[in-house]
User: Fold this.
Amino acid sequence: MIIYATNETMKRYKLKCPNEIISPEIKEINRSIIEKEKDDPLYAWGMKLFYFDGRKCIQFINAQTRIAVFLFFKNIADRGMFLNDVAHYLLWLYDDDLEMQDALKRYYASSPLATFDKITDRSLISVLNYNERCFLNVGKRYIENGVLQTKKINRGVANYLTTVTINGKNEYVVPKEFFREAIMKRFGADD
Assistant:
């Protein structure tokens, strides 16, 4: 996976672009990930840190399907687990869909490592900014008895209509359904 992060996110979490890595072995692993996946938006994720009600929030959004996952309270020590945390939420989101869970496992097995790079895709930046603004407007609805309901947030945003470009036309999709369609098309079982 390639996680394209905003400049602020890169700085806050001390993430390094592949060309900034010193170790030749790790640099080569990162180079091979980018070479293999750079033109495949299903393996590309946008990442942006923002603050909500004094809480750190990191938004991840898939470049192809626009499904978003929000993680909270993540520190620098957690950065090695970001991809696992996103996978955990996605598996949970499809907890009643065994076919999709199996396909997701094949998706992650096909690209078990992640590399970080600076985001340059203006469309992806725009969606990250839009989702942040929307979340900041409605986020307080997800606080119950002083506790932020992170699962409700991720289930909610997965079902909000969003636009994606399909065959050069903007179309409205439900990210949860569109992501499932894309994953099943590529990683679903061949019956």
Q: What stands out?
A: The two ends are 27 Å apart (CA to CA).
